[in-house]
Amino acid sequence: MTLTSAPGADPLVLNAPLAADFLARFLVNEVTKVGFQRVVLGLSGGIDSALAAFLAVQAFGPAGVTAIAMPYRTSSPSSLEHAQLCADTLGIELLVEDISPMVDAYCDRHPDASPMRRGNYMARQRMCILYDHSARLDALVLGTSNKTELLLGYGTQHGDLASALNPLGDLYKTQVRQLSRHLGVCAPIIEKPPSADLWEGQSDEAELGWSYDTIDHALYHLVDLRLTDDEMLALGVPADLLRTVQRRIRQNHFKRRPPILPKLSARTLDKDFHYLRDWGV
């Protein structure tokens, strides 16, 4: 697939029609070849899950997609409103599972839990719900984490980073915005500041310290083009940004890998027993 729309263009500018078609075909192929016909995903009201839902509907039609909104009692009301707006636009089923009782039942026993611990527990509780509904519906769970988040570790292991397949995993955040505009994701969802909605006023870019546009261009040159530090600095990438993204990529690499197994036998599953995901299907 040709990533850019034209030779000499910004390398992060997508050929949006081609990317959308490729990702829809990817979903159909990867879901159906392992015996499934439908998908389920969490719909948070944000742009990433909205784009995943639009791609899923392009692949399977509205009847093949179930979305689940999982608000906590402190979640912004606009998050559920935007999830409903997305579902109504696509004509897909939206279930609402309030995670407040189950989260509070645990967190009330640990009043000293930090916001990070509480946020991680919420993310894992949401994924438990998605996988339970996947069994009920005979559907695969779609991931909604983009490439920027995956590289920076901006996600919860076995929480929002868990899924059967993830159509956004090789799209930087700025490319998620481009593809969302192309597919007609609702404007209020595209235009609002990205947020994990962990507490009132929380903003991804405020926490990261730079805009996604700046971060994505640094990541592209560092990861995709493998430029050296000197080459990155010559491009005008701020030294503190370069150090930050390098540190986060390295420190969070364990989140992108399967669990480590010790090698005791002749064939160890993560080292010598390598087969395609659909082997035997």
In short:
The chain is built from twelve helices and four strands.
Widest sheet: strand ordering: 3-2-1-4
Please summarize the sheet with the most strands: 4 strands, parallel
What is the top-level CATH class of the largest domain?
A: Alpha Beta
Low-confidence stretches: none
The CATH architecture of the largest domain comes to 3-Layer(aba) Sandwich
Distance between the termini: 27 Å
Number of helices: 12
Radius of gyration: 19 Å
- Tally of separate domains: 2
Order of helices and strands: HEHEHEHHEHHHHHHH
The name CATH uses for the topology of the largest domain is: Rossmann fold
% residues in beta strands: 5-15%
How confident overall, as mean pLDDT? 93
- The number of distinct β-strands equals 4
SS-based class: mainly alpha
Task: Output the CATH homologous superfamily of the largest domain.
Answer: HUPs
Helical residue percent band? 40-55%
Q: How would you sum up the global shape?
A: globular
Which descriptors apply to this entry?
281 residues, mainly alpha, Rossmann fold, 2 domains, four-stranded parallel beta sheet, 12 helices, 5% strand, globular
Describe what this molecule looks like in 3D.
The protein is mostly helical. The protein folds into two domains: 16-198, HUPs (Rossmann fold); 209-256. It is 48% helix and 5% strand. It contains twelve helices and four strands. Strands 3-2-1-4 form a four-stranded parallel sheet, sandwiched between helices. Strand 2, helix 3 and strand 3 (93-96) form a beta-alpha-beta unit. The radius of gyration is 19 Å and the shape is globular.
